[in-house]
Amino acid sequence: MAEQSTQSIEIEAAPGDIMAVIADLPAYPEWAKGVRETEVLATDDAGRAAEVRFTLDSGPVKDVYTLAYDWADDGLSVSWNLVKGQMQKSQRGRYLLEPSGPHHTTVTYTLSVELALPMIGLLRRKAERMIMDTALRELKRRVEDRS
């Protein structure tokens, strides 16, 4: 099993407002860097995305992959794993939202990616950290701009 990387960020918003942005997967191309297209392939009984195909185009990195989502009933976390990918053998991720004061939430992003082509662990972890840093900053900007 691949090692995972973890990062956190403080967002000035309630957990429900943040989860609403995370759960709006069709809107990702509007704000998530490199995401060119998303397609919800299946939903769960609550109407949330259960399986989503992503088209990623970030300069030299291009990929099409499908993720399966598992939404926590308390609305404070969502996890996902790779169903199918071109460049990836596996991907596991999770957003965990923890209230940290009135209208403040700590968002922790955990990610583990294993590419189809071998990559030195140090480089893979550096890439994961860059992906997480960008994703968290963009999430923060999207949520706080909507407030």
UniProtKB/TrEMBL annotation:
Transmembrane segments: none annotated. InterPro entries: Polyketide_cyclase/dehydratase, START-like_dom_sf. Pfam families: Polyketide_cyc2. It comes from the Bacteria. This is Cyclase. It comes from Saccharomonospora piscinae. The lineage of its organism: Bacteria, Bacillati, Actinomycetota, Actinomycetes, Pseudonocardiales.
